[in-house]
Design brief:
Elements lengths: L14 E4 L2 H11 L3 E7 L6 E8 L2 E7 L7 E5 L3 H10 L4 E7 L4 E7 L5 E7 H8 L18 H12 L1
Parallel strand pairs: 1-4, 5-8
Antiparallel strand pairs: 2-3, 3-4, 6-7, 7-8
Amino acid sequence: MSQARSPSVSHIAPVLRVSDLGQSIAYYRDCLKFTVAFEWADGEGEPVRYAVLEYGKSGVHLTQSDQPGGTTAYCFVDGIDAYHALAKAAGANITEDISDQPWRMREFETRDPDGNVLLFGEHLDRVEMREKPGHRHLWDSFWYHGIFHPHDHENQKDQAEN
């Protein structure tokens, strides 16, 4: 007899309320380089009112709303400097430029057309690790303590197996 697995949360997807879904899809696709993974309309010929956009293993959900904005999401990025340059070159609305923060994150802020805030960041230990290959940093244990998302753990396991 097999033992039942304990339940766990696999991931969390923020749902952002937007006033013009088409405009928001274009912003996330064209400026932040997300891909459209799913669109929902109530019926054939009806306008799309819900969309899922993804970048790598992460995603954001957008829903058409009469009360847009007001959401903040923090997005953990591997390669923050390259992503910042990509978003900036594509015309993203960067409201706080990239900088190192006292809480050991390198991050920047952007706002979508409805004022939803997305913070993109990478722990400084990761940035520094790329500069010193082979050096083990404190962030290796952060996932265990719940500070980073589950994909960090998967990537570490993949790297250890290869």
